Amino acid sequence: MSLFNIFNISGSALHAQSVRLNTTASNLANADSVSSSVNAVYRARQPVFETLLDDSSGGSGDDAVAGVGVAGIVESHTPLEREYRPNHPLADRDGYVWVPNVNPVEEMANMIEASKSYQTNVEVADASKQMLMRTLALGE
């Protein structure tokens, strides 16, 4: 595996974790929103990752370069809840509003995990750059 492939792998992981952080931020931003109908309420979203494998080298598979891709973003299947808020302007005639299925504690843990993964991949790219620079310095 070439050092340049490490940059591609690390870069794909950085992109995936960036999508994960943005999705988590969106969930947290909408955690306190309410709606008058079940169809209009915000639903928590999570990115789905996939392994990217490029075996274009035609070799035995040892040279295949893997990476991380974002297959899509899916909505959570956690049941939605109704809250009794009779004074809320969006309350139905029974006094209920629909609230999102966002769990702020889980989202914060997800954000911490994604930011640590992002930081680790930045360190991998930096270490690879330092090794490449040292390799180039051998020729001097």
UniProtKB/TrEMBL annotation:
Primary location recorded for the protein, binned into one broad class: other
Keyword Transcription regulation on entry: no
Keywords: Bacterial flagellum, Cell projection, Cilium, Flagellum
Stored InterPro entries: Flag_bb_rod_N, Flagellar_basal_body_rod_CS, Flg_bb/hook_C_dom, FlgC
Entry's Gene Ontology BP terms: bacterial-type flagellum-dependent swarming motility
A Pfam family annotated for this UniProt entry: Flg_bb_rod
GO CC aspect terms: bacterial-type flagellum basal body, rod
Entry's localization field: Bacterial flagellum basal body
Domain spans labelled Flagellar basal body rod protein N-terminal: 8-32
Matches recorded under PROSITE patterns: FLAGELLA_BB_ROD
Annotated signal sequence range: none
Residue intervals of the Flagellar basal-body/hook protein C-terminal domain: 94-137
Entry's family note: Belongs to the flagella basal body rod proteins family.
Quaternary structure note: The basal body constitutes a major portion of the flagellar organelle and consists of four rings (L,P,S, and M) mounted on a central rod. The rod consists of about 26 subunits of FlgG in the distal portion, and FlgB, FlgC and FlgF are thought to build up the proximal portion of the rod with about 6 subunits each.
Protein name listed in UniProt: Flagellar basal-body rod protein FlgC
UniProt source species: Plasticicumulans acidivorans
Taxonomic placement: Bacteria, Pseudomonadati, Pseudomonadota, Gammaproteobacteria, Candidatus Competibacteraceae
